Amino acid sequence: MKIKGIIGAASLLLIGILFGAILVSGFGLVRPSLADLNLGASEPPVKLDADASSFSKAFIQVAETVTPTIVQISVVSERENPQSEWFFFPFKDLPREQKGSGSGIIISEDGYIVTNNHVVQNATKVTVGLADKRQFDAVVVGTDPLTDLAVVKIEANKLPVAFLGNSDNLKVGQWVMAIGNPLSLASTVTAGIVSAIGRGQLGLIRDSYGVENFIQTDAAINPGNSGGALVDLSGSVIGINSAIASGGGGTYIGYGFAIPINLAKAVATDLIAHGKVSRGYIGINIGEVDNAIAKSLGMDKPKGIIIQGIVEDGAASKSDLRPGDVILEIDGREVNRPNELQSYVASLTAGTTVKLKVFRDGETMERKVTLKSRDEDAKTEPISDKDKSGSDNKSGSGAYSFENLGFTVKNLSEKDKSDFKVDSGVLITDVKPFSKAEDQRLFAGLVIVEADKDNINKIEDLKNIIEKKKGSALLLKVLDQQGNNRFVGIEIP
User: Fold this and answer.
1) Residue 118 known to be catalytic
2) CA 242 to CA 223: how far, in whole Å?
3) Residue 417: is its pLDDT beyond 50?
4) Positive or negative torsion for Cα 198, 183, 162, 108
C-alpha cells in the first residue's frame, strides 16, 4: 500500500509538471526571445532607383524648408449684418464679432506677410502664429479686394523668408505642393499637379474690375489654407492658395485655386509702399473672341480679346482704340482670354505705357496707351460712337422674325429710344430656346445697334445685311438697359 501511494503521488507530480509545461509553452508553441523575433519580409518588394528616390526626396526637402515660412493667421472680425443671419429667430442676439483663421507667407525678414483679403477682411484683431510656436499681434498694412490679396505686419526680425518664384513659367501637369493650416491643423502639406492655368470667370471676386486669373490644382486645399503657399519642387512659391471648388460642405472635392505669385508680388509691393494699390487701367470693356466673332471679322481662327466699349474719360478714350478692335498682344504677350489681359494690366501702375497689337478690318497695327488710375466717381458707361449717328426711325414698330437664327426684332419706339438712350437700332423681343441666337447669349430686351459695323436704323437695314452675309458670319453690336455694349458673332446659314 505504501508503494502504491508513492507511485500515485509520483504520477500526479509528473502529470502536474507536464500540464504546467504545456501551459507555459502555449500548447506546443515555444515563445521566442525578443532577439529571435523577425516580423515581415526581409526586404522591400521594390527597390527605388536613383531617379525615384531623388523625386521622393524633393517633396521631403520642400516640406522641410518651406513650412517654416508659412504662418497661421487667427482673426477676430466684425460680423456683417449679424441679425440677418438669424431672421427666423427674431429675438436672438448674435455677437457682433466672429473668429476665423487662415494662412500667410512670410515675405520679409522684418515681418511682412502676404495673405488673402478675405482672411483679414473687417478684422479687429489679427494674431500670427509661427511654425516655431511663437505668436505675435499683427497689423493690417493694406488690402486689395480686387485681387483678394492683403499684407499684414508683425514686429519680429530674422524670420525665415519664402522664395517667390515666377508664375509665368508654370506649366499644366507640373508637380506642386500646397502648404498651409487647413481646418486649424498647423503645417499641413499636400501634393498634386497644376490642372489648369489662367482660370477665370469663376465669380469669386464680385466686382466688374475684379481680377481672376487663377492657377488650378488638384493638391488638396481646405478652409484654412487660404493665404498659404502653392510651391513647385524647387521650393519656389508660385501661387497663393485662395479658393476651393466645394460640394456644399465647404471642404475639398477635387480642385483648388491659387493667385499667381507674379500678381501677388506687384500688389504686395504697392501695399507695403503706399498702403493701397496704385493700379493702372486701360479703360475698356472686353470680351472673348469666339468662332462666330472671328469669322465675322475675317480672322483665320478665334484669338485675342475684342473691345466691347470704351470707358468715358479712361485711358483708351485718349487713344485710337475703337469698339470692335481685337487686342492680340500686350507688351509682346499673347492674350486670348479677358482675364489674361486683366491680370497683366493689374500688375502695372498708373502712368505705365503699354504697347498693344490690334487687329482691325483685316489688318494688324500697334497702338500705345498710357494707363490711368481708376476714378471711383468716373462714369463707366461706354462712349457712344459720335461719328455714326443714325437717322430717325419712321417705319413704325412692326416685328420681324429671323427664323433660321431664332430671334424676333421690332423697330424702336420713341419710348424705347429714351429708355436705352439711343437714336437708332432694333429691339430683340423674343429668342427661341436652343437657337443660334440663344447659343450666342442673345435675349429679349437687347437692342441691336450695329450689324457688320454699320448702324441699324430699322428692321429693313438688318434684313439687308443678313441677306448679304448668308453662308458666313455676322458681327452684331448689342446694348442692354444698363448701357453696356458688347459684340456678338453669329453664323448665318
Assistant:
1) yes
2) 9
3) yes
4) positive
Q: Which CA distances in Å does 475 have to 65, 237, 326, 460?
A: 55, 43, 13, 17
Tell me the C-alpha distance between 227 and 117, whole Å.
9
Active-site option among 74, 103, 118, 144? 118
Q: CA nearest 437: which of 462, 413, 404, 481?
A: 404
pTM of the model: 0.69
The three three-digit cell numbers of residue 166, written as one number: 515666377
Rounded distance between C-alpha atoms, residue 98 and residue 88, angstroms: 20
- Count Cβ atoms below 10 Å from residue 108 Cβ, excluding itself: 15
Determine the Cα–Cα distance for residues 129 and 104; give it in Å rounded to an integer: 10
pLDDT at site 81: 57
Give the sign of the dihedral formed by CA 291, CA 296, CA 299, CA 303: negative
Grid coordinates given for 11: 504520477
- How many beta carbons lie within 10 A of that of residue 316, not counting itself? 24
Distance, in Å, from the CA atom of 233 to the CA atom of 56, rounded to the nearest integer, reads: 10
Q: Are the beta carbons of 218 and 193 closer than 8 angstroms? A: yes
Q: What is the Cα–Cα distance from 145 to 143, expressed in whole angstroms?
A: 6
For residues 470-476, average pLDDT = 89
Residue 253's pLDDT band (cuts 50, 70, 90): low
SS3 488: strand
Residue environment code for 435-446, b if the CB has 16+ CB neighbours within 10 A, otherwise e: bbbeebebeeeb
How many other CB atoms are there within 10 angstroms of residue 456's CB atom? Answer: 26
Cα separation, 436 vs 288, whole angstroms: 18
Closest CA to 478 of 459, 451, 439, 438: 451
Q: How many residues does the chain have?
A: 493
* Residues contacting residue 458 through CB under 8 Å, at least 6 positions apart: 393, 395, 411, 426
Whether 51 is a known active-site residue: answer no
226 noted as active-site residue: yes
Active-site option among 226, 296, 343, 384: 226
Query: Which among 103, 144, 148, 385 is annotated as catalytic?
Result: 148
What is the model's pLDDT at position 2?
58
Q: State the chain's mean pLDDT as an integer.
A: 83
All structural domains of the chain: 68-81+96-154 (2.40.10.10), 167-274 (2.40.10.10), 280-373 (2.30.42.10), 399-491 (2.30.42.10)
Closest CA to 481 of 418, 420, 416: 420
